[in-house]
Design a protein that fits this description.
With 118 residues, the protein is mainly alpha-helical. The protein is 72% helix and 3% strand. It contains six helices and two strands; from the N terminus they run H-H-E-E-H-H-H-H. It has helices spanning 3-10, 14-22, 41-54, 59-65, 67-71, 76-117, and strands at 29-30, 36-37. The chain has a two-stranded antiparallel sheet. A hairpin with a 5-residue loop joins strand 1 (29-30) and strand 2. The chain is flat, with a radius of gyration of 21 Å.
Amino acid sequence: MRIGQLARRSGVSVRALRYYEEQRLLESARTPGGQREYPEEALERVQLIQDLYAAGLSSRTVIELLPCVSTGVATPAMLDQLVIEHDRIATRIEDLTRAKTKLGRVIENVTAAKREQD
């Protein structure tokens, strides 16, 4: 697929896709006319990159860790970093879940108080 199609399907800008390529996070082949062509698997890769960014991983960390996704091989340092990031995300999920629960209670209380007023 061409870069524009990948951008539309992934919801990521063409500029971001070019950046991913510059950082060697994403690979494309070139047509004889010089246009980028991406395999179907590129969509899943872009979504993973986006998910990692959304989870709070820095560009640098993503760049360092993403090669092991493709190869299935990680150095001991990479594995340690993967575990650290995994644990950090798990903690963040727990924090967000707790905040969500508390906000849910506030909403319930406010809704109940509004009903009593009406």
